[in-house]
Amino acid sequence: MNIQKRPETLARITTMEQANAFIEEQIQAIRAQVGADKVLLALSGGVDSSVVAALLVKAIGKQLVCVHVNHGLMRKNESENVIEVFQNQLDANLIYIDATDRFLDLLAGVSEPERKRKIIGAEFINVFADEARKLAGVKFLAQGTIYPDILESIKQAEGKKAVKSHHNVGGLPEDLQFELCEPLKFLFKDEVRVVGEALGLPHAMVYRQPFPGPGLGVRCLGAITRERLHALREADAILREEFDNAGLAGKVWQYFIAIPDMKSVGVKDDSRYEGWPAIIRAVNTTDAMTATIEEIPYAILHRITARITTEVEGINRVLYDLTPKPTGTIEWE
Ligand code: XMP
Known about the structure:
The protein is α/β, with parallel strands linked by helices.
């Protein structure tokens, strides 16, 4: 595990000046670390990896090779958007890999959350290693690890349990052949956004809600099946569309659907209809260490419920999760 404490000399980054100073410092540090070697970056398209990509492009240009792995656990249209923004608009060096079958085959029948996370994290590294073998001279792996990932992966005190092993900290195999480059590892999420804006990334990208590395894999609860994953992806797209239409997208920090591995009895077209419940989670936070619940107007909840239960095959109920963090974590696994 790659665990270090945030340096006490690093002041909380809230202003553009502080962000610019951080960026200058990191550019020097990255150049000193990587020299003339190539760096692979896991570009998921989330805030963290996008900011790392922008920082590395600024520091080392075409020495950076961005790899976008579609692990089959992306949200609807997400991989297409990553290609559009980074390849077409930002002209980054981007390799797209569709590894859907590889991940879903490995995850078949696996229900324990920590095992799922570890499988996804380890397979990410395998995919990168395969890619690195094809590219000459890749020595470094850049990651969008941020400080809460590290804090939650270690025990905070004797007698306490680590909350969960985030895939980019706890899942690395010991024989990892890359050296790590993690320029955001001491930053909290709100600081990463300020740095992203200072780097000139579009506002919508920097303030986009976060998406966990294991993706829909930790929202398709228990053992993942392709059918339930498909239902989750469609329901999640409806939720996001309705939040956009209601003007909630920029207001609520993170919102998504989780679907448990259970069915209940329902009724549709006068017949018994057994289906999964879709659980709506909508939370606000500044640093993801604690979170409160967004009070969504009932009219919007009714509309989302009506759309999901009629448009998504296999879902017969919609539930709203009222649990803050703690005691829930933001994700369900
Ligand atoms: P939890 O569920 O721990 O989530 O309250 C806190 C924030 O972290 C995101 N999250 C992850 N991000 N890799 C990531 O990069 C992960 O493995 C991971 N797990 C959770 C989560 O979506 C929330 O924003």
